[in-house]
Amino acid sequence: MDPLAQFQVKTLFPLKFLGIDISITNSSAYMILITFLVLLFFKWGLRHLSLVPSRWQSAAELPVYLLEKMVQEVNGVQGGPFVPMICSAFFFVFLGNVLGLFPYAFTITGQLIVNLTLALILFVFATAVGLYRQGVGYMRIFFPKDVPWVIAPVLVPIEVISYISRPVSLSVRLFVNMLAGHSMMKIIGTFVIMMGPLGIVPMVLNVIFTGFELFIAFLQAYVFSILSCIYLNDALQGH
């Protein structure tokens, strides 16, 4: 069994509009599902707000509170308006990672184009915020103050390459981790079937590895979010 088959994008409902292919694929279907699950989770958890929160209310408020605290630690009070964006990115990546752990499920974060699109949205947004708040002065991130002009020909190209590579590094890191981890689970699962009665050994190993992958799913979502905050910090405060 091909361990990479689980990452293949397949058309579920072929659709065309004005000659443009807008078919519903397993990838887009899972994005819609993730959006629905997030909305349902918060709608259900916050349906009865109380000063003494219920379990569901606590479950809905706690991750948002922790993410808000993370944004404020990195960006200060200026980061407040951007908490919803960071929360949205975190839940999208986290659920995209977790849903892929289920048998026969599709891992949207195992698609480089999905990760790159999300990273580019955050990157362009952060750049727009930087230009809006600092104007031309935002370009100082490529050549900070008090740096000798003599090293400008070397420093500026390095800083520009480093800056435009941010969405690439964000997306590739997530893509590689999901591709490697979920492929390994598939390979171990294949051994469980092939080894018959002796498959108990790889099965136990796969259960342990699943727990590890669940941790990685959270960790990668956290890393994606906190790096987004760090990149946003340049836009808010500069060098």
TrEMBL record:
Pfam families: ATP-synt_A. It is found in: Cell membrane; Membrane. SUPFAM superfamilies: F1F0 ATP synthase subunit A. Keywords: ATP synthesis, Cell membrane, CF(0), Hydrogen ion transport, Ion transport, Membrane, Transmembrane, Transmembrane helix, Transport. The chain crosses the membrane at residues 28-46, 82-106, 112-132, 187-209, 215-233. It is a multi-pass membrane protein. The keyword Iron does not apply. GO terms for cellular component: plasma membrane; proton-transporting ATP synthase complex. InterPro entries: ATP_synth_F0_asu, ATP_synth_F0_asu_AS, ATP_synth_F0_asu_bact/mt, F0_ATP_A_sf. NCBIfam families: ATP_synt_6_or_A (TIGR01131), PRK05815.2-4 (NF004482). Key component of the proton channel; it plays a direct role in the translocation of protons across the membrane. Belongs to the ATPase A chain family. This is ATP synthase subunit a. It comes from Holospora elegans E1.
